[in-house]
Amino acid sequence: MFARAGAFANDAVEIRAVNGDFNEAGPGQAWFRLRTPVLEGIEPTPVETACAAADFGNGLSNWDPNRDWLFINPDLTVYFARPPEGRWVFLDATTMLHATGTGMAESRMSDRSGRFGRSVQSLLVEPNQESR
After folding, report:
1. Are the C-beta atoms of residues 50 and 109 closer than 8 Å to each other?
2. What structural domains does the chain harbor?
């Protein structure tokens, strides 16, 4: 899927799927790591990595593998119960889409020490005219 998505998903992030698939319906789980610095010459912090990974929740949990619907997340909120640790962030993501034009993706966020937070994305949903 990401071969055509652009430089960030291809070049800046390493993704190791654990369960689910970006191209299959259902919830998903994966580890994420930033490959490149957010600021040149400065190693990414665990918080930067967590925020970058959090934005993948609505795609990692895919309820529309046929691409019958288009959806974007106009916002992303990340909640931290404690500071994340290390270079890798684990997402356990679930997405809900609804024909009313709304949806939501939420992800449990963990590191090697355990759960540290949650991310939530609201979704705007509409039919994909090209798939019909």
Report:
1. yes
2. 2-131 (3.10.129.10)
Contact 86, 111 (CB under 8 A): yes
User: Which pLDDT score, from 0 to 100, does residue 1 have?
Assistant: 45
Low pLDDT (below 50) residues in the chain? 1-2
Nearest to 124, CA basis, from 71, 80, 78 = 71
Dig out the tokens for 70 from the structure: 């288009």
Contacts of 72 (CB under 8 A, 6+ apart): 123, 124
Distance CA(47)–CA(91), nearest Å, equals: 14
Per-residue pLDDT tens digits for 6-35: 555 566 889 998 987 667 778 999 999 999
Rg of the Cα trace of the chain? 15
Say which amino acid occupies 109. Answer: M
Q: Judging by DSSP bridges, how do beta strands 88-98 and 102-111 pair with one another?
A: antiparallel
β-pairing verdict for 77-80 and 102-111:
unpaired
